[in-house]
Design goal:
The complex is a heterodimer of chains A (425) and B (123).
Chain A: E1 9-10, E2 13-16, H1 25-28, H2 30-40, E3 47-52, H3 55-63, H4 69-80, H5 121-134, E4 138-142, H6 155-173, E5 180-185, H7 191-201, E6 207-213, H8 226-235, E7 239-242, H9 258-279, H10 282-285, E8 291-294, H11 300-314, H12 326-332, E9 334-336, H13 345-355, H14 357-360, E10 361-362, H15 376-379, H16 386-401, H17 412-424
Parallel strand pairs in A: 3-4, 4-5, 5-6, 6-7, 7-8, 8-9, 9-10
Antiparallel strand pairs in A: 1-2
Helix pairs in contact in A: 2-17, 6-7, 7-8, 9-11, 11-12
Chain B: E1 2-8, E2 16-22, E3 25-32, E4 35-40, E5 55-63, E6 69-82, E7 89-91, E8 110-113, E9 116-121
Antiparallel strand pairs in B: 1-9, 2-3, 3-4, 5-6, 6-7, 8-9
Classes of the chains: A alpha/beta (425), B mainly beta (123).
């Protein structure tokens, strides 16, 4: 048993240790397991539609799947030189997500695992700890460092890393844990390769959709993507826009603190892509294509509904493909919940009403990122009835992603008891 | 209500902290400037283990008399406990969030007798 888990017993008093990046996920999320036990242990299904790999620890495994010899050589050379995520266009000195170490899980995972040498096993074991302790049946996994990859000026790097990550996920990770699912990362800078990936990986049973990592400057309504969207529509699996931060965007270089950029950047990219999607009438052109908008919270949704409705009434000639109001199209789309803006509950309730949250909102944790939400972010909302909570926490996602409504998570009490037994062994 | 001995005061550094679990209740005990404080290990945000995070000085915006800013500085008087779940910070002495004082940790009575620390738990 690692030292950081040891507890000193003083009679019935147990001392709890400081939480660090090396803390076991089960100890980190112990309070979440208690919430699961008290609040939603009897719910039929909990689905987390947005969680992440922290690729840094697993990058060498992913690089093994690089199909371009020159890029693989370059990446391995960078790795040998001490660069943690070769070929990734993120500036290490501009990484402030962990709040200067205040939120340790953002800097992990550095915890011990039982089988560190087997490819994929460390990620799967740590992910399973998180879903067991948050009380989640199925989780949809996204990358982290690759959220910026759409801005990489080397188009071929986006393609080959997307393929390597997808192959690592499909060939190594997913076969080890049926409760984990993932999406195909679409390297949108090369549409032919996007189509190839849809054909090659789209039928995998644990691939539940396709994702456009939204930090990019490619307009999503461009004609070059129409065949791709047709393929995705025919697949029956949703297209998921995952927002992200990007401080190098010219307007954001005016913002002098990470908090400012972070507050605006995620929403910014979804605002742009959603506006293009609607004004160019893509919901009319692809009526069966389901779209999901991830990791921008929900406060932006009524703003954009109001704004676009207002503009379309006045400037119909610039959005002539629309047969309904923008807000009506947006009410047919799906949204992930995190980071849920809970400070003003009256505003949040109005937002839920406007976006038809009881059928369109999907719980997401964003674990292990610094601003993650546990399922209690939904169960403790005072204005939701029990059925709405069940829908948002799992049933909406089951319908969208075609997941079985079948409990796969352990009882919270069993997870807690197993960890307690682990501690004393 | 029940009072529990959680160990000797001499085992604390100043500033320092220990977190205890007794019968399902979790309490953070802090020593700062020679005084002990105790708070429930439960963040008012989303119930995270607030007392098990890092101890850090309060960050301040250093504004000059002419209203220009020198940027951020660490306070020399105020020390915070930072919830490791999301980074929400609380003053160790008051238990209150630095910006919104209505958001605070729940206080736990603590006293020192003959070198031993006692906290009072809810029934």
């Amino acid at each position: 048993m690692p030292d950081e888990l040891k507890s000193s017993l003083v009679g019935e008093v147990r001392e709890l240790q400081e939480i660090t990046a090396a803390t076991d996920t089960r100890d980190y999320l112990f309070a979440a397991a208690r919430q699961a036990q008290r609040q939603y242990d009897d719910y039929e299904l909990i689905v987390d539609v947005d969680a992440h790999t922290q690729e840094g620890r697993f990058w060498p495994e992913i690089l093994e799947f690089m199909e371009n010899d020159v890029l693989k050589h370059t990446a391995l050379n960078q790795l040998a030189g001490g660069i943690r995520t070769p070929l990734i266009n993120m500036q290490p000195g501009m990484s402030f997500q962990s709040l200067s170490g205040r939120v340790p899980h953002q800097s992990g995972p550095r915890e011990s695992v039982s089988n560190p040498d087997k490819p994929g096993a460390a990620f799967v074991e740590i992910a399973k700890r998180s879903i067991d302790f948050m009380g989640v049946d199925y989780q949809v996994i996204f990358p982290t460092s690759m959220l910026h990859l759409g801005m990489n000026p080397m188009d071929d790097v986006e393609v080959y890393l997307a393929r390597a990550y997808c192959r690592w996920m499909v060939e190594v990770v997913l076969p080890q844990e049926p409760r984990l699912t993932s999406l195909i990362y679409l390297p949108l800078n090369n549409v032919d390769q996007c189509e190839r990936m849809v054909r090659e990986f789209g039928n995998h049973p644990q691939i539940v959709g396709y994702t456009i990592c939204a930090v990019r400057h490619k307009p999503v309504h461009h004609n070059q993507y129409m065949r791709l969207y047709s393929m995705i529509e025919e697949s029956g699996k949703p297209l998921v826009f995952h927002a992200g931060p990007h401080w190098d965007d010219p307007s954001f270089t005016q913002l002098n603190r990470f908090i400012s950029m972070h507050a605006l950047s995620f929403v910014h990219y979804n605002l742009i892509h959603m506006t293009n999607w609607i004004i160019n009438a893509l919901p009319e052109r692809f009526p069966k294509l389901k779209t999901v908008w991830v990791e921008s919270g929900v406060a932006w949704i009524p703003f954009l509904m109001q704004r676009l409705d207002h503009e379309v009434l006045l400037r119909q000639s610039e959005a002539p493909g629309l047969k309904r109001m923008p807000s009506e199209y947006m009410q047919d789309m799906y949204y992930s919940s995190q980071p849920l803006e809970r400070y003003d509950l009256k505003l949040l309730e109005a937002t839920f009403d406007k976006m038809k949250a009881s059928t369109q909102l999907l719980f997401s944790s964003d674990w292990p990122h610094w601003d993650f939400d546990p399922p209690s972010s939904i169960t403790t909302l005072p204005f939701l009835d029990d059925q709405a909570k069940r829908n948002i926490l799992g049933l909406n996602a089951a319908k969208l992603f075609n997941l079985p409504i079948k409990r796969t998570r352990p009882r919270a009490a069993d997870a807690i008891a197993a960890r307690a037994a682990d501690r004393v062994s | 209500m029940s009072e529990v001995n959680v160990g000797p005061a001499s085992s604390f550094t100043d500033p320092g902290r220990k977190v205890f679990e007794v019968g399902g209740q979790e309490v953070g005990v802090f020593l700062l400037g020679g005084e002990f404080y105790a708070w429930e290990n439960r963040c008012p945000h989303l119930d995270g283990p607030a007392c098990q995070g890092r101890l850090l000085p309060l960050a301040t915006e250093a504004v000059n008399a002419d209203r220009t800013s020198r940027g951020r500085e660490f306070s020399k008087e105020h020390m915070n406990i930072v919830c490791p779940w999301h980074g929400m910070e609380f003053d160790i002495r008051t238990g209150r969030h630095p910006t919104n004082q209505a958001i605070r940790l729940r206080k736990v009575p603590v006293r020192v007798e003959r070198g031993e620390i006692y906290v009072t738990l809810r029934a």
